[in-house]
Amino acid sequence: MTEYKRSKMTGKLYGIGVGIGDPEDMTLKAVRLIKESDVLILPRKDISKCRAYQIALQSVPEIDRIETLALEFEMVKDKAERDRNHRQIYEKVKCLIEAGKTVTFLTIGDPAIYSTYSYIAELAEADGIETVAVSAVSSITACANRLGITLCDDRQQLHVLPDADDLESAFDRSGTIVLMKSGREIDKIKQSLKGRDVSVYAVSNCGTDKEKCFRSMEDIPEDADYMMTIIIKES
Question: Which CATH architecture has domain 12-134?
Answer without folding.
Answer: 3-Layer(aba) Sandwich (3.40)
